[in-house]
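# step 3/5: fold
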Amino acid sequence: MKTLYLDIFSGISGDMFLGALLDLGVDFTALQKELGKLRVDGYHLHCARAERQQIEGVKFDVHVGGHHGHGHAAHEGHHHEHEHDEHAHGRNFAEIKQLIADSGLSPWVKEKAVAVFQRIAVAEGKIHGKTPDEVHFHEVGAVDSIVDIVGGCIGLEMLQRPRVLAGCPVDGVGWIDCAHGRFPIPAPATLEIFAARSVSVSQCEEPHELITPTGAALLAEFAEEFGPMKNLRPERIGIGVGGRSNKTRPNVLRAVLGESEGSAAHDWEIDTIAVLETNLDDITAEWLGHFTEKAMAAGALDVFHTPIQMKKNRPGVLLTVLCEAAKADDFSEMMLRETTAFGIRRTVAERRKLRREFKTVSTPYGSITVKIGQLDGQTLQIAPEYESCKKAAAEKQAPLKDVYEAARRAASAGPP
């Protein structure tokens, strides 16, 4: 199975990640063209060979107007210089989400880019007592972040979305200058991002920040496992070069693209979610229904309740909410406020998911959107999208089940 291993012995930042992907073979012109599908201007990209301590790789830069976008004190720690400045006039997370949603990028790139930004926004919101949508990015920092994060997702898709593994995160020591003063390394947002994913972090003697919040968010979103390289047959090695010369190690990110050997490897997607549960024996059916609707509208991945037998033989329900790990506190509060619960049990679980893609198929009832689930190149699930089928059924005055079956047959038949 195609696997990308990120050897983060000298940390990771967004521009180093993109530099490594470009060194692996991602086409720079094609990357620029895809990024052009975002309605963001006032910047240009630069890509060149560069060297750190006699290790050569690709140096990727974003130039915003007359400003060199990756020129701050960290690797290119643009987040620390600009984020959370209440007086800045940039984009907040809600605006960035809309910007990505309105673009012509692929559904997978949109989904993953928003997910990476979400990890940063949740972490920053927790630190500063704001909701994720309120987290504000300075104009320069926002452009840098959008290009690094969206570009990284585009690069992975251009490499055919390999399974991503990474070494154990190691940060440096010392201090960074944030908008609110000096703070010890690791940066607060970096730690919050790793905490939400339950990732272990170590420090080394390098007196600089090695892992930026963007780098941490990319790792948290894409890396399935953290540890030494195992049973990987290297095919290509890419080097992403950072902007500083470190004291104890070359400031580079090494990315190894190859084939994972062994029968256990599959190309499924892996993510981490929170499972919230509470036992209830004194809640009405109407309240349960109300809570389910409210939680789903707020972005829960799933909400369900199961009949159970409680103490003293009282019938009750087990209310379960599945959500992103970073949103667990928000949904725990909602459960406590909107139900009769006195406490919430919380666990973190890993999911294995089929690789998904959406395509539009032609049927006698019109065009229908279908979700395809694949494992190791084989299609295992075909699921017509409900809203698309519902609309077609209403327009053609046809039974919904007939539209579903027509969409499934069209998707199973494949291209003509």
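# step 4/5: annotate
The longest strand covers residues 269-280.
# step 5/5: archive (pending)
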